[in-house]
């Protein structure tokens, strides 16, 4: 079928049909861009590689789907499709209102920039999850075509709750503007000693690494922990001078199981005795 030759089946773009459209698009809380195409249409053929690239970059943030309107005429009629390609935008949340016509450009970067602007306007915040065991690490990072971003936050006793949340927010701002198939996560400093050793994170925390799990490649950020510099490094997939790159020989280090942070302030330990007592000279 046309969708196969367009590469939609093997991409993040959802293949939509009369049978699955309501469930996948209308019942979804995610924003959706839906392309109605015809396999014989030249403009659709030209759009296909751009659509696939945009779908892969936006995967996990913003959904893209495609309908072969020659096969699923009921859908095309329902949305008044008269020419190809026709692109409709279904905003996040309830899909009660009719969709908007997409009026943006036809390159992957046009589509991605348009989608990100819509998400920003809707107040979208990316998820940045704490990883606390091997299963969570694998499920987040062992994904074909995804780059895993792992932030090592300072010990909660060094930053307190507010300080930790400020660093997470900084990473969220980078995630929001990142262009690519990234998955952002975090761990607490000193909780993953094997990773810190492999990544040579002696310079202190916060620290951040990009990982291509399948290819066993990584890049560790060596610049100042500022949004602008982090974003540039992330969007270059760790390939700027602010990244120290390496390859894992053999297996990835094993991921230690830790107690997840419950969002509270760190416990304060009362001193058993004062320093003066310790330093006092014996009579």
What can you tell me about this protein's structure?
The chain has 283 residues and is of the alpha/beta class. Helix content is 34%, strand content 19%. The chain is built from ten helices and eleven strands. The strands form two sheets. It has a six-stranded mixed sheet, with helices on one face. Helix 3 (42-58) packs across helix 5 and helix 7 crosses helix 9. The model has no long low-confidence stretch (mean pLDDT 91).
Mean pLDDT comes to 91
Biggest sheet architecture: 6 strands, mixed
Helix percent reads: 25-40%
Overall shape: it is: elongated
* Topology order in helix (H) and strand (E) letters: HEHEHEHEEHEHEHEHEEHEH
How widely separated are the two ends? 94 Å
Secondary structure tally: strands: 11
SS-based class:
alpha/beta
As residue ranges, the low-confidence spans are: none
Rg on CA atoms, Å: 24 Å
Which range does the strand content fall in?
15-25%
Strand order of the largest sheet: 6-8-7-9-10-11
Q: What key attributes describe this structure?
A:
283 residues, five-stranded mixed sheet, alpha/beta, 11 strands, 34% helix, six-stranded mixed sheet, 10 helices
Summarize the structure.
The protein is α/β, with parallel strands linked by helices and 283 residues long. The protein is built from 10 helices and 11 strands.
Layout of strands and helices, then pairs:
Elements: H1 2-5, E1 14-16, H2 21-26, E2 32-37, H3 42-58, E3 63-68, H4 73-78, E4 86-90, E5 100-101, H5 108-121, E6 129-130, H6 134-141, E7 147-153, H7 156-177, E8 182-188, H8 193-198, E9 207-212, E10 217-221, H9 227-235, E11 243-247, H10 275-279
Parallel strand pairs: 1-3, 2-3, 6-8, 7-8
Antiparallel strand pairs: 2-4, 4-5, 7-9, 9-10, 10-11
